[in-house]
């Protein structure tokens, strides 16, 4: 797909997630505006945040930086959960960084985390079987383009097994996920659109600094909580940016 866009010689390419490295490898001249959850410097997409230096720039929300905050919110949601399952996509470039951050944060709150990885539908089902067998009470789903495309399946599995599960974006909660905390994808794509417009008017990606996401949302689904007979802590409800009933 990246090669096809380059062959068409489009004016600018907007991309996210794992598509960004593929596009960067396919062209060094066509402007790329990205939104991504991994560090663009560490993964070689840009040479620096203030001056990207190449044909790519965009908006970043690093999942590694959010990991401890998301675990803390899950601990607040399920304070009695001794074991917390963490589900990650091994194809995500910075998953191992996230997992190390989560292990460190788990030690601070004296909790054990159970790490599982899934890169396809079969592995997702197997991961949930392991979670149930281990009797984990809570689940933290990491950010992943693959997981986002399978969010209906992920949410259904969590509800079926009455897991207190949290996610990285509101798109899961819209489909019945219990809670999410993460960057506003709507706001990120709005800002990506602004950059794309500036490039179409003559700006170059090398001169447009990579921006960090600034809007983060805590979203709660009360209907799902009632379905699994769970009562949300009032402290979380009071801080929620959006409550779905």
CATH superfamily of the largest domain: Response regulator
How many DSSP helices? 11
Please give the CATH architecture of the largest domain: 3-Layer(aba) Sandwich
Low-confidence stretches: none
Determine Rg (CA atoms, Å): 19 Å
| Number of spatially distinct domains | 2
CATH topology of the largest domain: Rossmann fold
For the record, what CATH class of the largest domain applies?
A: Alpha Beta
Major beta sheet, strand line-up: 5-4-6-7-8-10-11
What is the average per-residue confidence, as pLDDT, rounded to a whole number? 93
- Reading the helices and strands in chain order gives HEHEEHEHEHEHHEHEHEEHHE
In what range is the share of β-strand residues?
Answer: 15-25%
Largest sheet: 7 strands, mixed
Q: Which secondary-structure class do the elements indicate?
A: alpha/beta
